[in-house]
Design a protein that fits this description.
alpha+beta; transmembrane helix; transmembrane; Macrolide_Exporter_MacB; transmembrane transporter activity
Length: 932
């Protein structure tokens, strides 16, 4: 038997080589494709595991604070803690921390907003013209926010420079009836600008407090105005008054610097300092001063007759808000002191004074310093944002009518308020009274807290300012392709993270003396919980997190969100126009989508199962087609052997043995080719996997050759030895019509090459269906890949983790599906080649009767096109069925994908017909006609 098999393979080298190449392509494709699938799975799950790391896995909020919108969309909104001022008791935090499996339970309490002065030292030295006797520097002011889209023009400030002698009032003593000046003179204050605060130049008064008569309880930074006075000394220096803890004094300086300030609301929050250090490493983010420790205690304001506590705080190094002040600087030569003998007339005269602009500067305020502080007064709290849902899935932020009176408390008269008090509001404002003062003991850099993967970051608004990019081209153009950031307005859409952090213990002491009753009992706004032994994203870790979250919910009754495996997802939000020039914007804001990593891992596992199944099926079909063709080609030889006495089992063994030898050789070739080919395609194929190609190739060859071998063993010698025209000949005895010829006659006479090519498919329906099925496998794989792509960009879609992973998956899947389609195309080409070989005499007759080479090529192409349409329709249909399983629904986009797949199938099969059509030109017409 073995010598016979070897002799046959050696004597029929061409056919053996063709079968060998078929098996080699199939097994190599199988090995590389399974390697590609494994690579995809490892890359995806590895990426998910790396990106699933976050500061915490469970977010706990007071009962009833999770909105219906969050429940419906399975998302956690940015600024999820804004508007939540307590609701969780310290006892509940201790209960959570004591649960098995809880590594860190970090509570945070949002306290409220207070106005903080943002200072800037404006150096005017280089703008002073030392040749002038008197000059006025006008400081035009424009407040900017929202990437410059919001702007508020403010009243100008003024700085007066003179070479004449100036005397300033000694404000640390005296009354409005008797005021002593720095030159020793004494004047009745009421006679000088009606306030006793006027300076004197050569004895003539200059009104300094020029906006006094416009002072009100609701005066914003845009309304304040002042005039500072500098005397140019003979040595070129600058003499001016300055405020010190001991009162006003005179100072001489080399530079003319003016202190300017404006109000910016800042948010105060309290944390458990030890838990926060373990959660994000806050103690390692200190850049100046020190972390709040046991020695930092609540103290009393020494000069106050009432109890006004001083609260130790940590301050952010630089403010978060996109809020700046633009100065337009101009100089006016003066021949006399600034006019006006009353504040009102002085203000009117100065407002009308203009000059050529010399310079423009835009500043954002100086950094905070250790030892500084602010008065927690007026102290406010704001609510959350409400949304309307739009049909396209976007949201509209609902504006709130907030009166500027909401910024006022009974004793804020004369204190400047932020300019945004008149801007559009999206949050309600309420006053909570006065909570004393703060003292900055340390500065921290939010960028130095422990960094977690941005693809899976959870709401960490304590240290991250929310950003929103333009959601459409118009909005992106308006924002200059930069993100919109909080503008410092507590009632604005984007809320600012806490600027000041204090200890929960100190807050408890403060609340015990001044805080509202509700805040004393349940001051905590949220608890962020890190679960122990969660490393990566596997089933065991997911179960640990689920159990902890379930226990927290059952034991406390609080709202619990599992943020483990979450990832930011863009959410379109429409924001109404502001009152300072910002137009209506469509924003793309990152909301946290829960459970994204689980959905990605699930989708990847399904994809792996589908690709493995498709690889096995396409390999089996390709091999079966090749072996059936070999048996058909040898039917006369096998019939002769049977007639000579070979039993059926020996014929069966001979056919299957030849296929087995070819399978073993192809498997060995795959071992050598899989590694280099995988490296070329960027797919890792281990030697252990490559060696498996030998038994796989043998098994596939045996399975593919089983039916053809059984068919050969059952063949009758008389039928195999009968000289009969092949299945593709028109000329057949009228008394012996075959079924295919009968079908053709009933179908009518074909017209032209295309019609004849399509009718030829009916003559060998089994072979036609086999070629169409092989192509359908590849088209199915391509359609399913489209379905998976839609799954990653639909249900779990649009999340950063999903986008990052799907890019890696699609690169590998494209290789896998391309190879599958290639195998299908080779199967179609093999079918067309066999058709040409079986009908070679018929085709030679057509050529002899005048058919051109182009007409014959169109005939073959028509057959390929017909097979392609059948395979494309079947593959697209199966692909849509797979999409329904993978995605859960069939969308319009998937229908378009299926339509494209049908067209692609027809084109691929038509292109596959090129090689058989070229072989057609090499047919020996004369020899075939002579044999016929």
């Amino acid at each position: 038997m073995i010598p016979f098999i070897w002799a046959h393979l050696r004597n029929r080298k061409a056919r053996a080589t063709a079968l060998l190449l078929g098996v080699l392509v199939a097994t190599t494709g199988f090995t590389v494709l399974t390697g590609a699938t494994q690579t995809a799975q490892l890359e995806v799950t590895g990426e998910v595991s790396r990106s699933a790391g976050a500061a915490y896995q469970v977010l706990v909020r007071p009962r009833g604070t999770r909105t219906a919108l969050e429940d419906d969309r399975q998302k956690v909104r940015p600024n999820s803690l804004s508007g939540i001022y307590g609701g969780i008791t310290p006892e509940q935090v201790r209960q959570i921390a004591a649960l098995d499996g809880v590594e860190v339970a970090a509570p945070i309490a949002m306290v409220g907003y207070a106005n903080q002065g943002r200072d800037y030292k404006l150096d005017l030295t280089n703008l002073v013209d030392r040749s002038l006797d008197r000059q006025l520097i006008r400081i035009g002011r424009t407040f900017l926010a929202d990437r410059g889209l919001s702007s508020a023009k403010a009243r100008a400030n003024f700085v007066y420079f003179t070479k004449h002698t100036v005397a300033w009032p000694k404000l640390n003593g005296g009354t409005s009836d008797r005021m002593e000046y720095t030159d020793g003179s004494i004047h009745a204050g009421r006679d000088l600008c009606d306030d006793g605060l006027a300076a004197l130049e050569d004895g003539a008064p200059i009104c300094q407090w020029i906006d006094r008569e416009e002072m009100s309880s609701l005066m914003s930074d845009t309304q304040g105005a002042s005039i500072r006075i500098f005397q140019l000394t003979a040595d070129g220096r600058f003499l001016h008054d300055a405020f010190t803890p001991g009162g006003y004094v005179l100072e001489t300086a080399d530079r003319a610097e003016v202190d300017l300030s404006w109000q910016a609301p800042m948010l105060l929050a309290a944390v458990d300092l030890q838990a926060e250090a373990r959660l994000v490493g806050l103690d390692r983010a200190i850049t100046a001063g020190h972390y709040i420790g046991p020695d930092d205690q609540l103290t009393k304001q020494p000069s106050s007759p009432i109890y006004e506590p001083i609260l130790p705080v940590l301050s952010v190094e630089r403010p978060y808000p996109d809020n700046s002040l633009q100065f337009g600087l101009s100089r006016i030569a003066m021949t006399a002191p600034p006019p006006g003998d009353t504040p009102a007339r002085a203000l009117a005269a100065l407002d009308a004074t203009t000059g050529p602009q010399l310079e423009t500067r835009t500043v954002g305020g100086d950094p905070e310093v250790v030892g500084g502080g602010t008065q927690l007064h007026p102290f406010m709290r704001v609510g959350g944002v409400d949304y309307l849902e739009n049909p396209d899935g976007s949201l509209t932020a609902v504006p709130v009518e907030t009166s500027p009176e909401a910024w006022r408390s009974p004793d804020t008269s004369g204190i400047h308020l932020p300019w945004q008090i008149y801007d559009s509001s999206f949050r309600s404002i309420s006053q909570t009274g006065k909570l004393g003062f703060t003292r900055v003991v340390g500065l921290y850099d939010p960028g130095k807290v422990q960094v977690f993967d941005p693809l899976s970051k959870v709401p960490l608004e304590t240290y991250q300012a929310p950003e929103a990019t333009g959601g459409d081209k118009r909005s992106r153009d308006l924002l200059g392709n930069a993100p919109l950031r909080p503008d410092g307005n507590p009632a604005g859409y984007l809320a600012t993270p806490p600027t000041l952090l204090t200890s929960l213990d100190l807050l408890d002491q403060l609340y015990s003396k001044l805080g509202p009753e509700s805040a004393r009992k349940a001051p905590i706004s949220a608890v962020r919980v890190r679960v122990a032994d969660v490393r990566g994203f596997d089933a065991a870790a997911r179960e640990r997190v689920r159990v902890v979250a379930e226990r927290i919910a059952a034991g406390t009754g609080l709202d619990v969100d599992i943020t483990y495996g979450s990832s930011p997802q863009p959410q379109a939000v429409d924001v109404a126009a502001g009152k300072f020039g910002r137009p209506e914007l469509r924003l793309s804001e990152l909301w946290t989508r829960k459970g994204v990593a689980a959905a990605i891992v699930s989708a990847v596992d399904r994809k792996s199962v589908v690709l493995f199944a498709l690889v096995l099926v396409v390999c089996a079909l390709f091999l079966a087609n090749a072996v059936f063709a070999g048996v058909r080609d040898r039917r006369t030889e096998l019939a002769t052997l049977t007639a000579l006495g070979w039993p059926a089992h020996r014929v069966f063994g001979a056919v299957l043995g030849e296929v087995a030898v070819i399978g073993l050789v192809a498997g060995a070739g795959t071992v050598l080719l899989a590694g280099p080919l995988g490296h070329l395609l960027g797919v890792g194929v281990a030697w252990s996997r490559a060696l498996l190609a030998v038994p796989v190739a043998l098994l596939l060859a045996l399975l593919a050759g089983l039916l053809p071998a059984l068919s050969a063993a059952r063949a009758r010698p008389a039928r195999g030895l009968r000289t009969a025209p092949g299945p593709g000949r028109f000329l057949r005895s009228p008394t012996e019509p075959d079924r295919a010829t009968s079908r053709l006659r009933r179908a009518g006479r074909p017209r032209g090459p295309i019609g004849l090519g399509l009718r030829n498919l009916l003559r060998v329906p089994g072979r036609t269906l086999l070629g169409a099925a092989a192509l359908a496998i590849g088209i199915t794989a391509a359609t399913v890949l489209g379905a998976i792509t839609f799954a990653f960009h639909g249900a779990i879609v649009g999340t950063l983790l999903g986008d990052a992973v799907s890019l890696q998956v699609r690169a590998v899947d494209t290789v896998a599906v391309a190879a599958t389609v290639l195998l299908g195309a080779l199967a179609v080409a093999d079918v067309l080649y066999l058709n040409i070989r079986d009908r070679s005499a018929e085709l030679a007759t057509l050529r002899a009767t005048g058919w051109t080479a182009g007409a014959l090529a169109r005939l073959v192409a028509a057959e390929g096109f017909g097979i392609g349409v059948l395979g494309g329709l079947a593959g697209a249909g199966l692909g849509l069925g797979g999409a329904a399983w993978l995605v859960g629904s069939v969308t319009l986009g998937l229908l378009w994908t299926a339509a494209v797949a049908v067209v692609a199938g027809a084109l691929i099969a038509t292109v596959a017909a090129i090689v058989p059509a070229l072989l057609l030109q090499r047919l020996p017409t004369a020899q075939l006609l002579a044999e016929e």
